[in-house]
């Protein structure tokens, strides 16, 4: 039985593979509808001509199908019951548990007014030393992982979820294989951390356009915990390239003229409305925060492609994954990774020697790269060159590798041990007061 506020139409004027159009009045942007029983959403309104995106595709929909407008945009019920649960792109449980009871809120709202933000200043320790040492994250920051599709970025995201010092972790999985979905589920369950993780999942078996709802669902949950509960929230989104591909699918099927790399011309603003939800609230309104780490997979390592290119303009740095052939492991590349906010916490919320240790380690790693180039070109290596190469190998294995699980104090202590193993204090070029305090005793 249709409710009084629902508007019902039965005359569709145009149908594409993903959309249908009809004349309708009093309909709002982003409003939900059903078309022949399939869920759809308003994506364009010109006068009284309304275009609906049908999430499951338009196959089998006749021109006289019943279109019912539901009078509301996509929404999520929020409460503490979200913790420990897995949901689909519509916010419905997919873990066999009960429906959520709570306040219903619309997803995809505006980002926080800049005047109500505080400059990020709280440490987000991930437990992955390659991030915490060289590219320390700050609460309220937005930063992507740039990775090749064959790299274990989902395992890295799962490790961050297990180790990160945050009150809540919100996972938004887009285009996950069933193996990846089960991997996340099993890792979280076996580690006993489900009580502070909320997961929204779209798998390869689901319609690609459903991926467009996942970030907004994840961020709606994040805003509830950050604003209402004043918690430190970390949002993990994987994979934003598949999200952008879904945008392109809808755009192309709506006959919009594509921009660079077949992406829609709105790509920048589409990505920005997600990333700009990252925020650190001031203490007077609770002090909660939303930090966003999002995977962007690279096609053939192409950093100039529209997706990573736009992402780089919006975010505050990037984290690069690279396979190190010397140690046979994936590392966080210290040369191509950059956290533009790390100076706000390094040495302030971490130990005093952090900035100097970070700079010295990267400089010695760079000297090792130069020594490797000399070796490959047949030049003789000095004793210092050989020591740099040995240091770089241990540095990669004991700090940069993504499977290294240590806290910020341990990573600094290990770095000092490596300095003492391969170099003299004057070669490391760290302040004498710090050398006297932290240089390993013989």
Walkthrough of the structure:
By secondary structure, the protein is of the alpha/beta class. It folds into three domains: 7-69, Elongation Factor Tu (Ef-tu), domain 3; 81-339, 3-Layer(aba) Sandwich (Rossmann fold), CATH 3.40.50; 354-438, no CATH class. Helices cover 32% and strands 23% of the residues. The protein is built from twelve helices and 21 strands. The protein has helices at 129-132, 153-163, 178-191, 214-228, 240-253, 267-275, 306-314, 354-376, 383-400, 408-422, 425-428, 432-438; strands at residues 7-9, 12-15, 19-23, 32-35, 38-46, 49-54, 67-69, 75-78, 86-87, 103-106, 123-124, 137-138, 142-147, 168-176, 197-203, 232-238, 279-280, 289-297, 317-324, 329-332, 338-339. Strands 9, 13, 14, 15, 16, 17, 18, 19, 20 and 21 form a ten-stranded mixed beta sheet that branches. α2 (153-163) runs parallel beside α3 and α8 packs across α9 (383-400). The longest helix is centred in the last third of the chain and has 23 residues, at 354-376. The termini are far apart.
Please mark out the parts with pLDDT under 50 across 5 or more consecutive residues, or reply none.
Answer: none
The amount of beta strand, in percent, is 15-25%
CATH class bucket of the largest domain: Alpha Beta
What global shape is seen?
elongated
Any idea what the CATH architecture of the largest domain is? 3-Layer(aba) Sandwich
- Give the number of helices: 12
What name does the CATH topology of the largest domain carry?
Rossmann fold
**Proportion of helical residues:** 25-40%
Question: What integer value in Å does the Rg equal?
Answer: 25 Å
Question: How many structural domains are formed by the residues?
Answer: 3
Largest sheet: 10 strands, mixed
- Number of DSSP-assigned strands: 21
